[in-house]
Write a structure and sequence with these properties.
The chain contains five helices and seven strands, in the order E-H-E-H-E-E-E-H-E-H-E-H. With about 120 residues, the protein is α/β, with parallel strands linked by helices. It has a single domain (about 1-115), classed as Response regulator (Rossmann fold, 3-Layer(aba) Sandwich), CATH 3.40.50. It has a five-stranded parallel sheet, with helices on both faces. The chain has a two-stranded antiparallel ribbon with strand order 4-5.
Length: about 120
Amino acid sequence: MRILVLEDEFLIAMDVEQLCRDHGAGEVVVARDLAEVDGRKVATQFDAAIVDLMLGGTSTLEFAAGLRETGVPFVFASGYSDADEIKASFPGVKLVTKPYSGKDLVEAVAQAYGRGSPG
């Protein structure tokens, strides 16, 4: 499984990368800025994504909409507090709020990818 991690906080990004590898991801790519990622190629390069809602003060919602359009399963992992806005704009997409446990994040990604049990 190839996972894209959009996270601008270095230590969190490293933790998430290791967590993904520990749970069987073959490749994990961390991007700290949207400029590092070609949104048009994400669907062919990644099986799933973990998306922080803000990268260096820039919203990732437009990027997330592109993921949805191309069918790449993803979850939001963020300290952003307006969960209602996310639920309205991205129904069915899990928001794992910081600080989160590794178990919660792994389960959310597994569910998004269709390998986990809903709940």
